[in-house]
Amino acid sequence: MNISLFVTCFNDTLFPETGKATVRLLERLGHTVDFSPEQTCCGQMHYNTGYQEEALPLVRRFTEIFSDAEAVVVPSASCAGMIREFYPRAAERTGDPDLAGAVEQLIPRVYELTQFLVEKLGVENVGAYYPHRVTYHPTCHSLRIIRVGDAPLRLLRNVKGIDLVELPSSEECCGFGGTFAVKNADTSAAILGDKVRHVKGTGAEVCTAADNSCLMHIGGAIQRQRGGVETVHIAEILASTEET
Amino acid sequence: MKRNGSEPPAFEKTARSYLNDSQLRRNIGHATRTIREKRKAVVDEMGDWEELREAGRQIKRRVMRHLDRYLLQLESAVEKAGGVVHWAGDARDANRIISDLVRQKGETDVVKVKSITTDEIQLNRALKEEGITALETDLAELIVQMAGDEPSHILVPAIHKNRAEIRELFRDKLGLPGLSDNPEDLADAARLYLRKKFLNAGIGISGGNFAVAETGTVAVVESEGNGRMCTTLPETLITVLGIEKVIPEWRDLEVFMQLLPRSSTAERMNPYNTFWTGVTDGDGPKEFHLVLLDNGRTRVLEDAAARETLHCIRCSACLNVCPVYERTGGHAYHSIYPGPIGAILTPQLRGPEDKSAASLPYASSLCGACYEVCPVKINIPDVLVHLRGKVVDHRKSTGGIKSRMNSEHAGMKLMGRIFRSRSRYERAQKLARTAQGLFVRDGVIPHLPGELSKWTSVRDLKPIPDQTFREWWGERS
Q1: Which chain B residues touch A216 with a CB distance below 8 Å?
Q2: What is the mean pLDDT of residues B234-245?
Q3: Which positions in chain A touch B454 (Cβ < 8 Å)?
Q4: What is the 8-class DSSP label of residue A122?
Q5: By the CB < 8 Å criterion, does B29 face chain A?
Q6: Rounded to whole angstroms, what are the CA distances from A241 to A28, A207, A210, A211, B81?
Q7: To the nearest whole angstrom, how far is the Cα of B159 from the nearest Cα of chain A?
Q8: Distance from B41 to chain A by nearest Cα, in Å?
Q9: Does position B350 have pLDDT exceeding 80, yes or no?
Q10: Which is nearest to B58 in space by CA: B293, B248, B250?
Q11: Closest chain A residue to the Cα of B394, Cα to Cα
Q12: Closest residue in B to A48 (Cα–Cα)
C-alpha cells in the first residue's frame, strides 16, 4: 500500500522517534510511506479550546494535502479522532459544501496507526522484539472517540520478549485534556496523580500508549518524581526488533 | 460554596480548595466508584441497552422538535383530569405562583419531595421570605437542609458527607445524644422525625421525572417512599416541572423507566414509582397544580448544536464516571447542576454574560466517559467544545482590546498563523529549539514562565530534540 504519513505537529517537533518508528514499521511490513512536508497541525488544540474559527483553515489545509492519499496513517489517536469525528462538524461550520464533501471523501481513509495495522492490514504480529516490562494506558481518545478497542493490546501481546502487565483503572483519563492541563491545572494534577500511582504500582519499566500527548503528561510527572518509569509510544515498541 | 447574590468565582479558582479537602476526596471517590460499578453490572445484563439508549434519544429529539405542541397537549390533558396548569417564565414567576398558592390555603408549612428543579429556582429560600417553611423529606436533602449546606450531586445530594458527619448533625439538630452512626439507626431517626411531618402536612411540593402529554400523567421515581407520602397525603399537591420533561405518549415510559433507574441508582426498578393524573375523588390530593417552568430552557432550545442538553433525564451517571467531578465534588461547579451535564446546562441556562458559568465548559478533559454512559446519548464532549466556541466568540465580540491582549487569545492567534504556513511552522520549530536553551536544566525543562508554569508546577517538560521528524525525513530521501 502507498501510505501517507500524517506525523502530527506534536510528534514532528517533540517526538521525532515516534515518526521514524512508524516509517520503519510500515516499511518493514512491505508498504511504501510518503511524507508531505506541507503538513502542519490538524487543528485540534484550536478547535477544542474554542478557537474554531482559527481551526478551520487547518481543516482545509489537511484536507487539500491528503485528498489523493490511498491511506493516511496517524501515530496519534487524539489527532486521528479530531480528523475523523470533528472535521465533518468543522466543515459544516464553514458552510462550504465543497469542503464538507472533500472531508466526507477523505475521512474513511484516515487511520490511527494500531487500528490501521489490525483492522485494515489484518496484522497482529509485526515481528517486534522488546524485552521489557510494559504497561499499556488506553488513552481516552483511542478508547472512546476512535474506538481502537483492544487493537493495541493484540499487537503488544505478540511482541517477543515483552512482559505486558495490566494497568489498574486503565480506562480512566490521565488528566491531560490539551489546554485543560493548564486552564484547570490543579484538577489535572489531581487526576494525573492517581494515574501515576497506578502506573508505578505495576512495577513496569515502560508505560506505553497510542498518544504522545498523554504520555508526555504522565511521563512529565514521573520524571519530576524521579519515578523510574519511561514513557514510550507504541509505535516505537512495535518498530523494535532483535536487530535494532 | 454558597451563592449569595454576587457572582461566584470561576471553576478553576474554587476547584483547588475542594481538591485539598481529603475527607471530601475520600467520600466522593468511594461513593462514585461504588455507584459506577453497580451501574455497569445492571446495564451489562441488558441485551438491548444500546437500542434503548437510541430510543430514548429519538423520543427526546421528537419532544424538542415539537415542544410547543406537546406542552399544550399536556396542559389540556392535565386540566381535563382536574388539575390546574401554571406557566412560569423564570424562577421568580414560579416562586411567586407557588407562594401565592400556599398563602391562599392559609398554610405556613409544606413538605417537599426531592426536586432539583425547585433547587434550581431556590424555592425554599423564596418561601422562607414569605414566612413559609419548606421541609425536605428525602433523607439526603434533609441532611443538606439541616446542615445549612447545598446539594453536591444530582441524585445523592449529601454524597460529600459520610455517616460520622451525619451522626453528628442528627445528634445536634434532632437532640439525640446517644445516636450511633449505623446507617439503620440514622435512617430510623430521620423516619421518626419525618413521619409526624407527613401526617400534619397540608401541602406537598414535588418535581417530576416525566409528564406524559397524551394522558396528563406526572411521574416521580424514588427510593425512600417519602415522595409517595408527599404526593398522596396532603390535600394539595404542587409540582414544578421543567418544560423539557414532557414526553409524548404513555408507552414512551417503557423506554425511560428502564433507562433511568439502571443509570441513576443502579437498580432494575426504583422501589417507589408514583404516577398521578390530575385528581381523583376520595384518593390522594384534592387539588393538583402543575407549574411548567422555562427559566432559560427555550434559550437552550434555540441553539440547534447544543439543544440535546435538554434531553437529560437527571440520572447523574455522567457525574459518577467523571474524573473531574470525582475529585472536585459538586460544589466547585457553583450550580445545582454539577458534573458534565452541569458543565453544559448551567452556562446555557444562565447565558453568556455569566463569567463563572462560562468557565464550566472548560472544566473537562474531554475524556468522553460521560457520553459513553449517558442513557439518552447526549454527546456531552461535543456540546462542551461547541460551548467553548461560544465563550471564545462572545469574548472576541465583546471583550475589545483587553481580550485581544489576553495571553491565551494572543497565543492561539499566533499558533494559528504559524500552522497555516509551512515556512512559518518550520521557522517556529527552529526558534523554539533555540529559545528553550534558556530553560533546559540537566536535560529537562523544570520551570517555564507565565501560564506555562502551570504545566511545570507538577511536571517536567521534555526539551525539543535536535532534529525534527521532517528534518530527518529530508536527510533520508
Answers
A1: 461-462
A2: 98
A3: 181-182, 185
A4: -
A5: no
A6: 10, 19, 19, 21, 77
A7: 19
A8: 16
A9: yes
A10: B248
A11: A50
A12: B385
Candidate from A54, A173, A224 with C-beta closest to B365? A173
Largest CA distance in chain B: 90
**Residue contact A46–B412, C-beta within 8 A:** yes
Predicted confidence (pLDDT) at residue B1 exceeds the cutoff of 50: no
| pLDDT for res B5 | 53
Per cent of chain B over pLDDT 90 is 90
Sheet of strand B203-206, all strands in order from the earlier edge strand to the far edge: B84-88, B287-293, B236-242, B203-206, B109-112, B133-136
Chain A residue nearest residue B389, CA to CA: A50
Inform me whether the C-beta atom of residue B419 falls under 8 Å from chain A C-beta atoms.
Answer: yes
A:B CB pairs within 8 Å: 185
Residues B420/A57, Cβ–Cβ less than 8 Å: yes
Q: List, as ranges, residues 420-449 from B with C-beta within 8 Å of A.
A: 420-422, 425, 429, 432, 444, 446
Answer whether B461 sits within 8 Å of A220, measured CB to CB.
yes
Model confidence at B420, pLDDT cuts 50, 70, 90, reads very high
- 3-state SS, chain B, equals CCCCCCCCCCHHHHHHHHHCCHHHHHHHHHHHHHHHHHHHHHHHCCCCHHHHHHHHHHHHHHHHHCHHHHHHHHHHHHHHCCCEEEEECCHHHHHHHHHHHHHHCCCCEEEECCCHHHHHCCHHHHHHHCCCEEEECCHHHHHHHHCCCCCCCCCCCCCCCCHHHHHHHHHHHCCCCCCCCCHHHHHHHHHHHHHHHHHHCCEEEECCCEEECCCCEEEEEECCCHHHHHHHCCCEEEEEEEHHHEECCHHHHHHHHHHHHHHHCCCCCCCEEEEEECCECCECCCEEEEEEECCCHHHHHHCCCCHHHHHCCCCCHHHHHCHHHHHHCCHHHCCCCCHHHHHHHHHHHHCCCCHHHHCHHHCCCCCCHHHHHCCCCCCHHHHHHHHHHHHHHHHHHHCHHHHHHCHHHHHHHHHHHHHCCHHHHHHHHHHHHHHHHHCCECCEECCCCHHHHHHHCCCCECCCCCCCHHHHHHHHC
Q: Tell me whether B287 touches chain A (CB under 8 Å).
A: no
- Residue type at position A150: D
* DSSP percent split of chain A into helix, strand, coil, nearest 5: 55, 15, 35
To probe the interface with A, which of B469, B470, B476 has the most A CB atoms within 10 Å? B469
- Residue-wise over A92-119: b if at least 16 C-beta within 10 A, else e? ebbeeeebbebbeebbebbbbbbbbbbe
**Which of A9, A89, A185 is opposite residue B419, by nearest beta carbon?**
A9
Q: Is residue B10 within 8 angstroms of chain A, CB to CB? A: no
**pLDDT tens, residue by residue, B183-233:** 999 999 999 999 989 999 999 999 999 999 999 999 999 999 999 999 999
Contact B110, B135 (CB under 8 A): yes
Amino acid (one-letter) located at B347: P
Query: Grid coordinates representing B118?
Result: 425547585
CB atoms within 10 A of CB B133: 12
Q: Average pLDDT, stretch B322-340?
A: 96
CB atoms within 10 A of CB B44: 10
State yes or no: ipTM above 0.95. Answer: yes
Contact B248, B213 (CB under 8 A): yes
Do the Cβ atoms of A37 and B416 come within 8 Å? no
